[in-house]
Amino acid sequence: MLSRSLVLRLTALAATLGLAACGSTAPGAAGPSDPAFVLPSGTAAPSATTAVSPSAVASASPTAGPCGVFPASSVWRADVSKLPVHRSSGALVNSIGATAHMHPDFGAGLWEGAPIGIPVTAVKPGQKTVKVSFEYAGESDKGPYPVPADAKVEGGRSSDGDRHVILYDAAACKVYELYAAYPAGAGWRAGSGAIYDLRSNKLRPAGWTSADAAGLSIFAGLVRYEEVAAGRITHALRITVPRSRNTYVWPARHAASSSSDANLPPMGLRLRLKASVDTSKLPKQARVIAEAMKKYGVIVADNGSPWYLSGAPDDRWSNDALRALKNLQGADFEAVDTAGLMADKNSGAVRG
Questions:
Q1: Is pTM, for the whole model, over 0.85?
Q2: Could you say which residues form the signal peptide (predicted)?
């Protein structure tokens, strides 16, 4: 399934990079007190190019302050379990696929020689920065970007998919995200890029893309093993939909469609797993994820296959447990109205 349906964008990028248009199968805002974001005492920080969840490198210093992933007031961390159902929920869910099953697009092991999911590369303090040239420079943060020479690329170095590169800098409390990233001489080239201050609720300028179609952080919506192992996820999760509308809703900043069909979901749409869905018999890994989808929901972030759920690869995942999520289908979800959460359309902070 083509992961971005904005044909002009992909066509232009393909021409620039000398590639055919490609497909792809296709944090998390846990705060400093969350167990997934505290480095255990005596644990050594990983090397500059280790692909890990941010929890493995978060600072535990009470003076410096651990680097969480967006503030506790972030919309990513908002409990949406009691929000009103969106007036068009039925039509929106039907357009995504009421009978289509959820697909966890991450796991353990390799698929076609590459880890399954969107990897995160932890960069050490002082990592040398490089210049990145962008196809969509007008909507990309200039950088520079601390990209190690062996940074992990979604799909692997030889892939022709979305090729996201996600860099987590615990020392600076920032995340750097690239779309369609390729090494180029001493630097890199990419379709687009975004830099996020993880202690800020600032959104990208209205109308700007990011490394994701919705103009949001990919990093913020990934399912990560350490969170699930700790027993809870405290943020919304990223999903893709087969078709979207030519508009976006807060906190998204960018649309990725030419269709004005009101039944199609806009970028940024929040949905939740219905409270009536019995998740008690799911394997633990799947149950923790399902419970997060009930409380924090999922956010439409890109075009792709229906109900594809994004996560970071980790060999500790139980693929059998994750497959249990495929028992969920679109009809188990409902769109929610998040308008009451917004305090400022240019901020990701919810009303106090």
A1: no
A2: 1-20
